[in-house]
Each structure stands twice: as C-alpha cells, then as structure tokens.
Amino acid sequence: MSEPNQLEKPPLKLGWLFEMAWRDSRKNRSRLFLFISSIIFGIAAIVAIYSFGYNVKKDVDNQAATLIGADLSISASKPADESMMPLLNSLGDRRSQERSFASMIYFPKGDGTRLVQVRALQGEFPYYGTLETTPTAAGTDFKNGKKALVDQTLMLQFNAQVGDSIKVGNSTFLIAGILNKAPGQTGIASGIAPIVYIPLQYLDQTGLMQKGSRINYNYYYKYDHDVNVTKLVKGMETRLEKANLNYDTIDTRKENTGRSFEDLTRFLSLVGFIALLLGCVGVASAIHIYIREKIASIAIMRCLGVRSTQAFLIYLIQIISIGLIGSVIGAALGSGIEHLLPLVFKDFLPISVSTAISWMAIGQGILLGVVISVLFALLPLIAIRNISPLNTLRMSYENINLLRDPLRWLVYTLIVGFIVVFSYFQLSSWQASIFFTIGILVAFLILTLIAKLLMRLAKLVLSNSWSYLWRQGFANLYRPNNQTIILIVSIGLSTTFICTLFFIQSMLVKQVSISATTNSANMILFDIQTSQKKQLEALTAHYHLPVIQQVPVVTMRINKVNGKNATQVKKDTTIQLSPHVFSYEYRATYRDTIIPTEKVIDGTWKGTAVSGTEVPISIEDRYAKKNHLKLGDHIEFNVQGSPVQTVIASIRTVNWTKMQTNFLVVFPKGVLEDAPQFYAMLTHVPSKQVSAKYQQAVVKQFPNVSLIDLGQVLSVLDELLDKLGDIIKFMSAFSIITGIVVLIASVRISKYQRIQESVLLRTMGASRRQILTITALEYLFLGALSALTGTLIAFTGSWLLAKFSFDIPFSADVTPAAGIFLAITLLTITIGLLNSRGVLNKPPLEILRGDS
Amino acid sequence: MYPFKKSAAILLSLLVISCGDKKTAKNTLADTLANKADLAGQTTPTSTKTILVFGDSLTAGYGLDDPSDAFPGVIKAKIDSLKLPYAVINSGVSGETSAGGLSRIDWVLKQKPDIFLLELGANDGLRGNSVAQTITNLQAIIDKVKAKYPDAKIILLGMQVPPSMGQQYVNDFKKMYPDLAAKNHIGLVPFLLENVGGITKLNQADGIHPNPTGAKIVAENVWKVLQPELH
Questions:
Q1: Which of A395, A411, A428 represents a domain boundary (last residue)?
Q2: Which residues of B, range 112-151, sit inside 8 Å of A by Cβ?
C-alpha cells in the first residue's frame, strides 16, 4: 500500500494523504453516511432557522410599518415654522399631510351630535397598510370629492348609511365609506373620539381652522429606496426638537408598542443559537465516535510505518471533507425546508412569510459546519498522534486515554472561544455571550459528572445476585467501549435546549397574549359618579353585559412623608425619598381584600382601618422602590382637603399584564367611603354592534361617563401581537423538532459500537428477547438519567434567561417538562432498540462476515 | 371578540391609576391641595375669611413644577402682599367635569367659603358633553352652595372651547356662563383664559394649560372681578 522508506522523509506528500483519506473512507461509506447525517441535520437546522427567522423578522417589520403607515411621521401641535418648511419638504420620496383635531360633528339624518377626531388628509397616506373601508374603494376615492370616511361604531350609533351626509364645521360631506381600520390608529385618543376622514382641500371651508383652534399637524414620508430612517432622524433630532416637532419612525413606534418586538428578536436569536448548539452536539458526538472507531485502523497504519503526523492529517482531511459535504447538503436541505415549510403550512403560518434564499445564511451554515467538524474532531484527532503500533497487537484500544494530550487544552480553549465568538454574533453582546458560554460549560460539566457518577455507581451496586440480563444491561454502562459519557452529554444537552426553548416559548406567549375569554374586559367606563353606579349596573345588565370590575377611585396627593413636606425633602439631601411623590396625583382605591393578581411581598395586608389609628395602606413594589418608600413610612395624604394619616403596612406586587384596574396605592375599608370619588367599570362587549348600542345608551343616560372601547382602539396592535405569539410558538416547535432529529442521529451513531457485541451474544446463543432487554435496560438508564438532568438544567437555565435576558416573570409548568422527559427517554430506548434490529433480523454470521 | 393584550392592559392600568390617558392627561388633571394644606396651616386663624377655588386642572395647576404657580396661588400671593384677611383654598382636581364637581361639592362644603370661585366645564367641553347637561350640573353646584352658605359670594369663571370643535357647539358653550351668571345673580369672569388661550408662549407644551407667566394673566382676569368683593 505504501512504502515505508519514503514516508520517513519530509515532505508529507499531500497527494498521498488525500488518497489515503479517500481509501480509508471506502470501506466505511455506509456508516460514514450516518456520521454525515448528523452534520447534515445540524447544519440544515441552522440554515433553515436562520433564513426562516430572517424572513419572519422582515415580514413582521413590514407589518409593524402599518402601525405608523409611513417610514417617518413628523407631527406638531401648531403650524411648523417657515424656517422648517424647506426641511419638511425635502424629506421622503413621497409625502402626505394631515391635520387632525377634535370636533363636534352633526348627523343631519339622525339629528345627533358627537365628538369625533377629524383627520383632514392629503396625499397617498397610508403607504403601509390601507384605510380599510366598506366599500373598499372608498379608502382612496374619498379624496376626490367632498366626501368623508366615518368610523364604523359611529355609523352604527347614528344608524347612518353610506350615501348619507355629515356636517363637519360649516361644510356638509357625503359619507363615502365606513372606516373599519386605519394605520396608526393605535392611540387611545381614537377610542374616545371615533375617527372621521375628510380631504384636506376642504378643511378651510369648514371654518374650523381659526385662532385658538387646537389642530395637530402631521407630515408622513415614504422612501422608495433603502434609507436608514432611524439614522436619518438622529441627524436632525435637535433641529426638530427645537422647533417643537415630534417624530415617529417604525422603530420608535415598535419600541413604544411594548417589548413584544424586542422579545421576538431576542427569541429568534436564541432559537438560532440553540440550533447551532444542537448542531454542535450532533456533529461533535458523531465525530467523536467516528474517530474512536478508527483507532484500530490508525494503529495498523502506524505499524506499516505511517508517521503520527501523517495519520493525524489523513483523518483531518477526511473530517474536513466530511464536514464540507455534510454542510453543503445540510445547507441545501435547510434552504429546502425553509422553502417548503411556508408552502406546506401555509394555512397554519401566522403571516405570509417570504421565502427569499438567504445566501448569507447558507454561507454561514457551511462555514460553521466545517469549523464545528474540525474543532470537535480535533479532540480525538490529536490523540491519534499518540497511537502506537503496539495498539494493534494489544487490541485493547480502550486503554488509550484519548484525552491525555497536553494539546487538548488548546483545543478546549479554541472550542470555548468559538462558542463565545459565535454566540456574540447571535446575541450581539459580549456579556451575554460569555454568560451563555459559561452556562453551557456548566451544563456540560454537570452532565459529564453525572455520567461518571453513573458509571461508578453501576460498578458499585452491580451484584451477582441480579439476573443476567440486568447485570448485562447495567454493566454496559461502564464496560469498555461504553457510550455513557457521550450519550449522556449529548442527550442531556439536547434535552436542556429543547426544554429551555419550550419554557421560554410558553413564557413569552403567555406574556404576549392574554386570551380573549368572556372574563377579559374590553371596555372601560370611568367618571361614573356614585349616584350613577346602581343605574349603570342595571343598564349594563339590561344589555346582558357582565360587570367584570367596578372599583371606586379617589384622587389624592401626598402632603408629608415621615413628617416632611416637599420643600423640606428637597432641601434635606440626606433624605433619599424622591420629590416626585409629592407632585404625583394618586388615583387610589379602597377595599378589604387583595385581589388574586396582587401579592404581598413585605409586611401584612390589613383590610380594615381602625379608627383613631394611622390607616394601614399598601404600596406597589416597583413604585415604592423607585421612590425610596419603605415599609413603616408614615404618609400624610391630602384627600381633597382632608389630611389622612397613613402608614405603609404592606408592599405588594401587581401583575400589570392583567386586563383590569390596578393601583399603586390601596387603602383599607373604613376611611375613604365618604371622600369624593368616581367609579371605574370594566365590561366585555361581544361585538361591535352591541358595543355601539351600549355606548349609545350610556352616552344618552349618563352624558358625563367616559367610555373607551379598547377592542376598537387596539385592533391593529392586537392582531400583530397575536401573530407574534404564533410566530414564537411556530419557531420553537420547528427548532424543537430539529433538536429531536439531531438527538435521533446522535443515538443512531452508536449503532456500530453495539452491533459487534450483540452479534457475539447471539453466536453464544442469546435469544432475541434477551438482547432486546439488555439493550433496552442500557438505554433506559442512559435516556432517563440524561433527560432528567437535562430537564433540571433547563429549569435553571430558563429561570436565568427569564430573569436576566427577557426580564419576564418565570413560570414553568411541570407537566410539559415531565412530558418532554418521558418522550426523550422513550425516544432513546426506541432508537436504541431499532439499532439492534439489524442484528437480530439477520443471521449472526452474515453480519460478522460483512462487517470485517 | 377582541383579544386583549399586555399593552392594552397596561394602558388601562395607567389610565386608572395615573389618569394618564391622553385626553385627561392633556386636557385636565388636577393638582389638588398640595399647597392648600400649607395655606391652611399658615393663614387660617379663625378670624380670616376663606376664598374657595373649586375647579379642574386650571385651578390645580396641572403640569406646573410648583402648584402654587397656578392662578389661585398667584391670587393668594397678591392678597398676602395687600395684607387682606383672606385664605385661599385651592380645591382643583384634574380631569374634573361638572358631574364630578357635583358629586364632590358636599365634601368640599364641609368648610365654609366666604367667596366661592366656580371654575368647571372645560373638561365637559373638550369631551363634547352636551351643553344642557353641563348647565344642569353647574346649576346644581350653585344651588348647593347657596343652600348651605347663603352669605357666600359666588363668582363663575367662564370658559370657551377651541373653534375647531365646531361653531354651533362653541357658541352654545360660550353662552352658558353669562346665562348662568345672570340667572343666579352671581359674579362672572367672562373668559378665564382671556389673552392666554391659544397663545403659544403663555401655555405649556400641551397647548391647553397655562405656564407660570400665563397663570399670572389668568389671575389678573380673575382679580378684576374678585377685588371689589374683598373687604
């Protein structure tokens, strides 16, 4: 095969090395495929998730654009300065203008007047999304004549039809269409006053633009080419501010919309990161087992005079090639999946996801595949240099400790460095990536430790009194050529990742969506006077609507804290208390219990006040912390003229995400009953028709009561948030499935190690059942233990992630975790048994001959 | 069916707790009596008389760093410098409508006013409440004051709504104050925000609430009518 005397001399003969790498692979093509498959799945997962995630993000961004309807909007509460006009007219490729203001409009047909928000529009706005109207064409056509678009609830309230007219100021407009949804209609203002659109060119005729009129001036801009609007705006921020102009970009609107978008982005990078790690686990365990199996061949080559460096290089070349082939196939598969998914799941996908090929993702995937393969192969590979020819003769290659090379520290460092750098690209924060890496190292160490413990324990407890099968199954855990460490680590890590994703996913979804049950309120009424309370309840009942909550609200301010008033606190620098507490106007309530969404974390809740003593009140935790208010602080409240002495008796946390009235300050019963107060009431309206009828009745009977239909206000936002929740669910389901595939691959890899043993057992007369039991027992221990450890690590990991990365309350259900645990254990056993099937179904001799 | 989401809930929470919904935050909101207690402590020995300013955010001084910069505070400073025996009680609550005032009036009337300044209605106007309803409420408040303290002098502080609200409504609203004053034979400040409303540099950024400079002019408008009543 080769000539030893030539090999003694440098150079290394690269061509020959390649040939050797090729020849060596020849015999193992079939099993090589198995190793490659692990790489393929890992890389496919990464590429698919990358490009899918990228596309999802882009599409969500486009959706978010409908929140504002343009790339940039600039608004002012007065006409812009002459000096600003050149700037305002230079922005954007397309421009629109709008004037908006509150006004009383008149419905001649129903002889009714109602406060609305008039929007006088000129130009093509909205550039993203549309003015959704009935009939559809009205959304753009109304600008061509003296026509108006009228909010649908308003139409219902006044029984108006398209074709009727309304009077805005001194002008009469024809109702061209019913306005169902408008971009940018997310402000709460629109809930109080329904919107009416009119063309800007008729605004002057209405006579509503006069001195003293309160008009908002809005300018909308759209760029037809790629412009970084955020950067652009940054450049003129000070000029705008000086001129009292406010701006809104898609980014700022997203920020204001809440953390949902940020959470999504973070979640997507977490998914990408975890996909990578799953890929690493798959690739690393594949390579590890592959090299171990090669030790015999390497020893023989060494006997024939191959130098250790050459042996090392032969396998390095092989690994790089395998890695490259696997990565390319994986990348192709990944792009394929990414293209197929939206087609297959079209109906289930929350939004129409575009399927552009992301070359970036493919390139990254291939590079990653090769780098991971090499890095993780290096560990066993450097050991090749230590394989002496003697190993052939002894044939007890288990004695070589593959990990006793000093160079291995270098490899470890490289691997850790790689994870840090790569996670940096995912998370774009060094601190976060270092924490993640440490977390993974800790998980890795725990799993290795557990594996070692298991091996030692198995050795200790194994006794001859056990049945043969149990002994065999147990002994497999520590006997030479065992897979305990490698399987526990890879199954354990996979479980950790899958579980973590699952936990975080459900926490985020919980955070994003509060389901629309009949229990959740979607309409709030406030300014209900005490005398109107009973009547309003009756009216609400008449419309078969639930009174979800009705709470008294008392307005008050703080006079003194611990005997010091605002001036004294400001002067005394030793007092930490924020002066803000004095300027704030508190809307407090009183009741005798704390409600389920509140939790007392310090002190004790007292439900009734004892006359003659200080009133025990409860303060919300974050507000107390922010303003340095402590348990036991004495506060003198000024309840509209009457001083009330109180003491902070409890600090409580409030779940602000719940759709209900929440309060910073809660009084006990027995103090504020006589104080001036109004009531706030929450109800749930099942439909727009009911909403309109109910609103009409309330406005008629209780003209002072203000009413906000939150369903209407937030419909645009709600839809988007709904979709975000679905995307999060979908992405995590996708990567969890990938994780399972990688898991299957890494267990499959162990197939060849077990085949020989099983065959030997069979030749010695073992029955099918016996072999199956032995295998099942071994995999039961491995699967159960690693899955359990993985689940526990995931609990800790998710808690840390929730607390530090996502800043959401941690909540993890035990039931799904138990489900994952069982599923993974079963999966491990099943795959393990499937591995042995090949042995069991064929005559032993066939395999023995075929294999060697 | 409307699904409800975090931001909705937070919005709602804010709304009720801080009354921070856009409308109330912009238009009204009262500082109540932060300075009232001080005033009461310093200047209400039994022999002094009381001016009670019953109103909304304009009275309370919404948005001002120091609530005593609001027009009742300016009037108080003026009275102090003239050494007149009057205490000024600021009883303004932000967001207060005439209906809110009506249900609060009993609590406030526990103390006896010698001069009662009624500054309500602006929030009714900005919410587009019916003028008839506002008239009924203001009348009821006046009746209650008269019933309990027949000697108290009442001065009504008139308001207007922006022309953008529509001519009909603007006119009806404007007319309400002189009508009420004539009917009840009480004092009237025709327009509280005369020479202040709609002038950018005299108002805060929200364009509704006067800044300290604006509040001085507001106090001047009130002073013209109030001064003859002081003894």
A1: A428
A2: 124, 126-130, 133, 137
Looking at the structure, tell me whether residues A77 and A207 fall in a common domain: yes
A267 and A173 within one domain: no
Q: Which structural domain range is residue A348 located in?
A: 1-67+259-428
The number of beta carbons lying within 10 Å of the beta carbon of residue B185 is 7
- Within a domain: A108: yes
Residue A156 lies in a domain: yes
Taking CB atoms and an 8 Å cutoff, what residues of chain B touch A526?
15-16
Kindly state the greatest CA–CA separation across chain B.
Answer: 64
Hey, how many other C-beta atoms are within 10 angstroms of the C-beta on A88? 20
The tens digit of pLDDT for each residue in A105-158 reads: 888 887 788 888 899 999 988 888 888 898 989 988 999 999 999 988 788 878
What are the domain boundaries of chain B?
Answer: 30-229
Closest CA to A509 of B6, B189, B213: B6
Per-residue pLDDT reduced to its tens digit, B102-127: 988 988 888 889 999 999 999 899 88
Distance, CA of B120 to CA of B177 (rounded, Å): 10
Please identify among residues 111-170 of chain A the ones whose CB lies closer than 8 Å to any CB of chain B: 113-115, 118, 168-170
Rounded Cα–Cα distance for residues A264 and A635 (Å): 42
CATH class label, B30-229: alpha beta
Active site includes B185? Answer: no
pLDDT > 70: what percent of chain B? 80
**Chain segment A660-699, per-residue pLDDT in tens:** 678 889 999 988 888 888 898 988 888 778 888 888 888 7
Of A236, A256, A276, the residue that ends a domain is A256
Share of chain A above pLDDT 70, in %: 78
Closest CA to A620 of B187, B17, B114: B17
**Which residue in A100, A170, A640, A702 has the most chain B C-beta atoms within 10 A of its own C-beta, making it the best mutation to test that interface?**
A640
SS3 state at A589: strand
Q: What is the DSSP letter of B22?
A: H
Considering the domain architecture, whether residues A250 and A263 belong to the same structural domain is answered as no
Of A214, A514, A686, the CB nearest to B162: A214
Same domain, A275 and A182: no
What total number of domains does chain A contain?
A: 3
SS3 of residue A360 by DSSP: helix
Residues A670 and A646 in one domain: yes
Q: Residues B31, B56, B57, B94: which is the catalytic one? A: B57
What separation in angstroms does the CA of A679 have from each of A58, A163, A657? 44, 40, 21
In a shared domain, residues A7 and A98: no
Residue A348, both tokens:
């289930």
Tell me, yes or no, whether A126 and A215 share the same domain.
Answer: yes
> Does residue A458 sit within a domain?
no
Q: Sort out which chain B residues have CB atoms less than 8 A from A582's CB and list them.
A: 34
Same-domain pairing of A15 and A121: no
Handedness of CA A218, A219, A224, A228 (dihedral sign): negative
Query: Count of A–B CB contacts within 8 Å?
Result: 257
Whole-model pTM: value is: 0.62
- Chain B residues inside the 8 Å CB shell of A78: 200, 207
Is residue A722 pLDDT above 80, yes or no? no
Q: Is A400 on the interface with B (CB under 8 A)?
A: no
Question: A443 lies in a domain?
Answer: no
Within an 8 Å CB–CB cutoff, is residue B85 touching chain A?
A: no
Residues of chain A contacting residue B107, judged by C-beta atoms under 8 Å apart: 640-642, 674-676
Catalytic residue among B38, B106, B143, B206: B206
